[in-house]
Amino acid sequence: MVGLTAHTLRWYEQEGLVAPIDRDSAGRRRYCDDDIGWLRLLIRLRTTGMPVREMCRYAEMVRAGDHTVGDRLQLFVEHRERVLARIDELQQDLAMLDLKISVYGEMAQAQAQPLASR
Fold first, then answer.
1. Any idea where the HTH merR-type domain is (predicted)?
2. Vertex 19, ends 15 and 20: CA angle to 5°?
3. For residues 56 and 15, what is the distance between their CA atoms, to the nearest angstrom?
4. 103 lies in which domain range?
5. CA angle (14, 77, 45) in 5-degree steps
6. Mind listing the pLDDT tens digit of every residue in the chain (118 residues)?
7. Which CATH number characterizes residue 52's domain?
8. Counted domains in the chain
């Protein structure tokens, strides 16, 4: 449902990223909507490059209660800054690719023109 393997889900639970999940009579994990939402958040944090140790720290803060809201805010503000810096790096990388595509496109077109005029 969220695109994670059973192995990854078990690992998330083992690492404390996910609270122990209820199980059915056959021992299969039964994820509720809140669990799915939490997993989707973890996936986004991981996709944006948040280290697992920070994700664990965040999970611990959430479990600790509302007195950690300020620390959670700070964690997200800092992570957002890293994401913005990465976006800037990717934009610079994209600009270099666009330049190379333009240069090689012009070279390829120049090489093709003499052949077409024959």
1. 1-61
2. 95
3. 7
4. 6-116
5. 35
6. 899 998 999 999 999 999 888 889 998 889 999 999 999 999 999 999 999 999 999 999 999 999 999 999 999 999 999 999 999 999 999 999 999 999 999 999 988 886 656 5
7. 1.10.1660.10
8. 1
